[in-house]
Design a protein that fits this description.
single chain; 6-stranded mixed β-barrel; 10 strands; 20% strand
Length: 415
């Protein structure tokens, strides 16, 4: 784009002489401003990616990548559906489930719960709850008839521990001579889990599938089948393909539909954060404008001499555009290097900073995620570098145009 002479002169102007130390200072501040903006943007976007991935993994550790359920809330031929699904490509696991709302009581403590009936063996193929047991054992649920596993905060709300007897009151009713009575059953707490997501830790209760079928009068039926896929990002496409192969009327929903609002909010927040932090780069770019305006005024005689030697207005414009681009490119590269190093080593840098300052940024008793996660994406790095470079180029256009409009006779009149 630039001829070597234009680039050489533009680069030469970035190094001020002794009498122009103020220009040198402004140039240095432009370097630093762009570098800080790029570094901050890459680091913050990487941390937000890390939080998004951490939340997604915790949610999908208990939820499923996709679910197949009946239109009326029950799936009658679930065994055939289960066998068909397991033969499909990209499906790593399938497990039947029953989900109902109920009331759990322990002594005088009462709390609502989302009760999920599970097949203890097949559930491991779609969920990692067994890996997040806080108290007790997941395997005890298989052995204990009418056993129950509670989320940690749900157990705390009803003051239940492993071995406690809790009473479950369901919306289903029995007709007795005394009238219509709710179905009530006592369960033994065999375990307490903590997956790190409040939605499940404070509301979820797990029981055996057979016990759920008996309790909710769904013998031989389930609510649906939960799926785990080899690539969760392809869940929408794979779900549509599976839905076309299943006969009858079914509802197939993937995780992007279940949690659309949550991840849409995270995406919007990330976009807004990118826009806000880009203002740092924009401020540094405006600093380049002031630098070039001062340089153009200082170099009016030099510009006039170049014009008299045959330099065209376009060449003069390229000189100052190249000067601004040198500032922008060097600052962008410096910021990219710092941002990449910080993003890749944030799990080491943050604990070291916490130890140095004697504080904990994310206290585990307050925040859901107590460690600062980071996931650097090259797409974010490239987007940040593009924004920085584009703003730098835009910032050079007006001062360079002003320089190209310099008239030699007028500029040399008082020299």
């Amino acid at each position: 784009m630039f001829k070597p002479l234009s680039l050489f002169i533009g680069f030469r102007y970035t190094r001020a002489k002794r009498r122009n130390q103020f220009i040198s200072f402004i140039t240095l501040s432009s370097f630093i401003g762009i570098a800080i903006g790029v570094w901050a943007l890459i680091t913050v976007l990487s941390v937000m990616n890390g939080f998004q991935s951490e939340i997604r993994d915790r949610i999908l550790g208990v939820a499923s990548h996709a679910t197949i359920s009946g239109l009326n809330g029950t799936l009658d031929n679930w065994q055939s559906v289960d066998k068909l699904i397991e033969k499909q490509p990209h499906v790593e696991g399938a497990a039947p489930y029953i989900v109902k709302e109920a009331m759990l009581t322990n002594a005088s403590n009462v709390n609502g719960a989302l009760v999920r009936g599970i097949d203890t063996d097949e559930e491991k193929t779609v969920s990692n709850v067994s890996e997040h047991m806080y108290r007790g054992s997941y395997e005890d649920l298989k052995k204990q008839k009418y056993g129950i596993i509670l989320g940690r905060y749900l157990a705390r709300s009803i003051a239940a521990v492993v071995g406690s007897k809790v009473t479950m009151v369901t919306p289903s009713a029995n007709v007795t001579p005394a009238g219509i009575m709710p179905r009530i059953k006592r369960f033994t707490v065999v375990g307490i889990f903590e997956v790190g997501h409040n939605q499940y830790d404070s509301n979820m209760a797990l029981i055996r599938l057979q016990d759920a079928q008996t309790l909710f009068k769904m013998k031989g039926k389930v609510t649906g089948v939960r799926l785990k896929l080899d690539d969760l990002y392809q869940a929408p496409r794979i779900s549509r393909e599976i839905a076309q192969k299943i006969s009858g009327f079914h509802r197939v929903v993937d995780w992007t539909q279940h949690y659309a609002n949550l991840f849409r909010a995270i995406k919007i927040e990330k976009t807004m954060m990118m826009i806000i932090l880009s203002l740092i780069i924009a401020v540094a770019a405006f600093n380049i404008v002031s630098t070039l305006v001062i340089v153009v005024n200082d170099k009016r005689a030099d510009i006039a001499i170049l014009r008299t030697l045959g330099a065209s207005p376009a060449m003069v414009m390229r000189i100052f555009v190249s000067q601004g681009m040198v500032i922008g490119v060097v600052g962008t590269l410096l910021g990219m290097t710092s941002g990449i190093i910080t993003a890749l080593n944030i799990d080491t840098l943050v604990p070291a900073l916490e130890h140095l300052l004697g504080i904990k940024f994310l206290a585990p008793d307050v925040y859901l995620i107590s460690e600062l996660p980071s996931e650097m994406k090259w797409s974010d790095v490239i987007a940040t570098a593009t924004i920085s470079f584009s703003l730098t180029v835009l910032a050079t256009i007006y001062p360079a145009w002003r320089a190209s409009r310099t008239q030699p006779a007028e500029a040399l009149r008082y020299e």
